[in-house]
Amino acid sequence: MRDIRSIFKISTCDMIHEFWPSLLAILGLAGILTPLLILFSLKHGVIASMSNRLLASPKYREIKSEKHQKLKAKWFTEMAKDSKVEFIIPHIFFLNTNAQLTNDFASEHIFVDLNPTAPGDPILKRWHLTVNKNDEVVLSFYAAEKLNLLDKKKMELLPEVLTGDTRIQALIRNIDQIEEHSLRVVGIIPKIDSSKNNNIMYVSLPLLTALDDFKNQELLKRDIKDRFYPQFRLYAKKLKDVQKLVYLLESHDIPVTSKVDRIQEMQQIDTLLVLVFVVVSGISALGFLLANTVNLLANVSRKQRDLSILRLLGYSSHAIAVFPAIQAIIIAVAGSILAWGLYYLAAPLIEAQFNDNIRSLFGYRLASENGTDLMLLFPTHFFTAMGLTVLVSLFASIAAGIHAANLMPAKGIRHD
């Protein structure tokens, strides 16, 4: 162990003595590692940004039935227990699925599509909204705008609407009569999740059920436990769960539609970027391995006289064999740290250019709303890269170490 500590000092001093060759070796390694760090951070950041963007918008995790079913309440209870399901609620698509809305400020009536909701609904939860009572509703932005419920400067609901002093009236018709419901608007879905051509109102399931019964003139005649539901609103917990749930539902003869194609596009991009990174890093690692092996062998050959003298001074062959390995480790660690610094200098410039140019392809900047960077690299990634670099360097030093260990002590005298 004493020999190893002594060899470590000698190896370090030797590198300091040969400063410029050592610096060039470190710069060469940093030149290989920096592009790899940039490539990996782009791969990791792009996929993270796309994944966060898709995950932030619940519509990408939504699964809808393609046709009417006959689903009982028990089926919904069982589906809600599935760990892949974040939210599920029965939906009723009756004839004329909309309701007519009006209030004292609206110049005309508007029609809205009715969607059932409950606490935990991803669409409402995203905007910190919830419907807790049967007379509470949430409107899409443009529906609220058409009803003159918004403060035109702040583009928010008027205070008197939120307090319930100003309500809206929903008119539901059946063959014989018209029923009017006074409803309190507790929130709006912002523009980003609203469509100009599709006015939506989120209501409680009991209210929607009652309206359906009224339209069918069966109000309070059916026990809710015996009701069949033709549709549902279902949201997967994670993006990767969408396809699994699609397979599950279709295996039970429930054809569905989803955004699984968009999710698969992201996964294909991820696979492609992984392949590119593996190929480039593999070629770079092989080139570094060969170059480092040749460099260390040449260094040992150049210093065989000095190493032989160390053998004459009593150092073991094992200690001498460690000489090139120590220098390889020092170059690997120093080169990794330098590459990390160069990456942080280059990343902001590359990210700005890449993001601006790719906007024309995707239609938006890839950096997500919550501040996720396009180039993303964590300290764990750096230390992993450093560890792999050290391993490759140690592997490259094996041939040089064997050559150093086999040097005969007599060579140190022969040159004299």
- Order of adjacent strands in the largest pleated sheet: 3-4-10-5-9-8
Give a short account of the largest sheet. 6 strands, mixed, barrel
- As a percent range, the share of strand residues is 15-25%
- SSE succession: HHEHEEEHEHEEHEEEHEHEHHHHH
- Percentage of residues in helical conformation: 55-70%
Helical run tally:
13
**Whole-number mean pLDDT:** 83
What report would you give on this structure?
The chain has 416 residues and is an alpha+beta fold. It folds into 2 domains: 2-56 and 265-414, no CATH class; 62-258, no CATH class. It has a 6-stranded mixed β-barrel. The chain has a 4-stranded antiparallel β-sheet with strand order 2-11-1-12. The protein is built from 13 helices and 12 strands. It is elongated and about 120 Å long. Helix 2 runs antiparallel to helix 9 and helix 11 packs antiparallel against helix 12. It starts with a helix and ends with a helix. The model is unreliable at 367-372 (pLDDT under 50).
